[in-house]
Design brief:
Elements: H1 5-11, E1 18-21, E2 25-29, E3 39-43, H2 55-74, E4 81-85, E5 101-106, H3 126-141
Antiparallel strand pairs: 1-2, 2-3, 3-5, 4-5
The chain binds guanosine-5'-monophosphate and zinc ion.
């Protein structure tokens, strides 16, 4: 889509520091890295969210993610651990409406934080967990592919 910044990067209309490219995917450095080595992997096609993306592209995206996380670890940037992050939808923190997987190095003492009120949260009982699981199982079964891929 013409006004999408990631589509512009794919088209070469905006500069990027590329790490990997094939017919389906592009990986490049995030312009505002959480830590050095922060890489984004995107499908070249403009899918706004995961629901728009076909599973073949999704599998290739995760395959590339696995390879890239290994390469980031081996590249010499400070990297004791890795976080993957994919914000799907605005309420999840998605700012660029073109599917993208974040891969970023982590190390003890870095500044990245996930804010959550772990302490005062009321945890669900088994009954609630079972009911929620049943709801998701049912939704899975009525998907076009059913519960299996
Ligand atoms: P989101 O919040 O949507 O999950 O992540 C969007 C990411 O895209 C952010 O980490 C941001 O730094 C990155 N970003 C935004 N604009 C550009 C750009 O023009 N070039 C690159 N390389 N990254 C960008
Ligand atoms: Zn796009």
């Amino acid at each position: 889509v013409s006004e999408c910044i990631f589509c512009k990067i794919v088209a070469g209309e905006l500069p990027s520091s590329k790490v990997y490219e094939d017919d389906t995917l592009l990986a490049f450095m995030d312009i505002n890295p959480i830590n050095e080595g922060h890489t984004l992997v995107i499908p070249k096609e403009h899918f706004v969210e995961m629901a728009d993306m076909d599973e073949q592209t999704g599998m290739l995206l995760f395959q590339a993610t696995l390879r890239l996380q290994r390469a980031i670890r081996d590249s010499g940037v400070p990297c004791e651990a890795i976080n993957l992050f994919l914000a799907d939808g605005e309420a999840a923190g998605q700012e660029v409406p073109h599917v993208h997987m974040h891969i970023f190095p982590r190390f003890k003492g870095d500044a990245f934080r996930v804010h959550y009120d772990w302490v005062s949260k009321q945890w669900p009982g088994r009954e609630q967990l079972d009911a929620t699981a049943a709801g998701i199982r049912n939704a899975l079964e009525v998907q076009p592919g059913g519960a299996t891929a």
